[in-house]
Each structure stands twice: as C-alpha cells, then as structure tokens.
Design a protein that fits this description.
The protein is α+β, with helices and mostly antiparallel strands. The chain has 2 domains: about 60 residues, Alpha-Beta Plaits, CATH 3.30.70.3550; about 180 residues, Aminopeptidase. It is about 30% helix and about 25% strand. The strands form 2 sheets. Strands 6-7-8-9-10-5-11 form a 7-stranded mixed beta sheet, sandwiched between helices. A hairpin with a 2-residue loop joins strand 8 and strand 9. Helix 1 packs across helix 4.
C-alpha cells in the first residue's frame, strides 16, 4: 500500500485499518509537506501525532505499543514527597498554568537532551501548537523559583484525554514537579490517561508503561468526545501526593 503523502485537507489513513503501511518503519502512518492547527486537531482525535527532524517532511505516527501514564500511577518516592513538601511550604516556588505558552515550548525546543542532536520542535511545530493553544486545546504548566521559569511542560487536551508533548528543566526536579501537578489535576478531573507517545526509561521510572495500540485508540475515541475541563490550578494541587502511600 505504501505511505500516504497528505495535502493540507486530506484525511489521515486510519490507524485502525491502515496501520504500518511501511513495514520497515512501524508506526509511521503518513507524510505531509506542511503542518497546520486544523491537521493537528484531526490527528489527535485519531491518536496520531507528528514527530520529525528539521529538514524532513512532517512524519505522522501511531506506534504500537503506545506509551501512556495513568495519573493515579504516577510514582512519588519518599525523597520526591519531601521535595513536594518543600515546594508547597516555600513561597519562592510557584506553579502556573498557561502563563507563557510560547516561552514554555521554546524552552522545550532548546533543552539539551542526552543522545539527541537537535530538536523535533521546529518553528512550524511551535507555530501550529501555539495556534491550538489560542483555541484552548494546548496548555503549558510552568514551574517558577524566585520568579524565574525553571521547568515545565506543554500538552494537548481534548475532552477527557491529555496528550503529553515535551518537558524542560533548568533546575533539578522542576519538570517532575510540573508533571506531578498535571497528574494531580488530571485525577481531580477524572482524566484516566496521559499519552506519552513513545517508551523511554525516564517515563517508565515515573510510572509510564506501554499498552497495545488498539486499546489506546479506543480510549482516545471514547474520551475525546467530552467537554474540555477548565485549566486553572496552582501548586496547591500537589497536596494530593502527600496523602498517598509511597
């Protein structure tokens, strides 16, 4: 069958019926020359995401298995619980939502990562995600220390489904504070799953694990029909983890 080259308004191949069109690149579903906010939203509703390097065409993926994190399974060690207590008690620490989405995605793009040369967060990606942020579908969680943005993440939200995208940290543990905040808020909103896209040891250490693609796609199909929750919280949401056993 081969990979589909998509024009801006072309439908995506079905990840249920047309998955893995190129057996040599499992999970790669389609290719396009450009990326738009409208395409992004259609893709996420079908459990598809873009991931590519600068100079490449836009590569659209639906891998099997799919890495996910169930917020209730987020791992909080004794040491991390102490860090959370410190953040809650120390006025120098703040957690903000959508304070500066563009600054957050730019920080994620410029974050140095082991064994990674360059970034997949290109100018086209930043523009498209900024557009869906303005539409209320992409959000940033930002961690501040003494007024400086020291960590954070950005994600996509459709109904009762959250799709994690990228994190950054300029101070040890700051990105984990952002993720702990997101997970605590998601539990309060009855959001059962955060998409992590691809398996990494770092995500596994925080409670993420792979599930079959069909299971993931069925969950997305069911949960993205709900109304988006209101994204408004601060570091007090972290209190949730202090009552949980380690």
């Amino acid at each position: 069958m081969g990979l589909s080259w998509l024009q801006p308004h072309d439908p995506f191949p079905s990840p249920w019926n047309d998955a893995d069109p190129d057996p040599e690149v499992p999970g790669l579903l389609a290719i396009s020359e450009d990326i738009s906010a409208e395409q992004l939203l259609r893709a996420y509703h079908q459990g598809i995401f873009p991931w590519y390097s600068d100079g490449q065409p836009i590569l659209w993926w639906s891998p099997n298995p799919r890495m996910v994190l169930r917020p209730k399974n987020f791992k909080v060690s004794k040491n991390f619980k102490k860090e959370i207590k410190n953040v809650l008690m120390d006025q120098d620490w703040e957690v903000k939502v959508d304070e500066d989405f563009h600054a957050t995605i730019l920080s994620c793009a410029t974050q140095a990562r082991p064994d990674q040369d360059g970034t997949w967060i290109t100018h086209a990606i930043m523009h498209a995600y900024s557009q869906i942020h303005e539409q209320g579908h992409a959000h940033s969680i930002e961690v501040f220390h003494q007024g400086q943005r020291v960590g954070g993440l950005y994600c996509v939200n459709l109904g009762k489904m959250v799709f994690g995208e990228s994190m950054f940290s300029k101070k040890t543990g700051a990105s984990k504070i952002a993720l702990a905040s997101l997970c605590a808020w998601a539990i309060a909103q009855d959001i059962e799953m955060i998409d992590c896209q691809q398996e990494t040891a770092h995500l596994s250490s925080m409670g993420g694990y792979p599930i079959p693609r069909d299971e993931f796609l069925n969950h997305v199909r069911e949960k993205t029909t709900a109304i988006n929750p209101i994204w408004r919280f601060n570091k007090s949401v972290l209190q949730h983890w202090l009552s949980q056993p380690t």
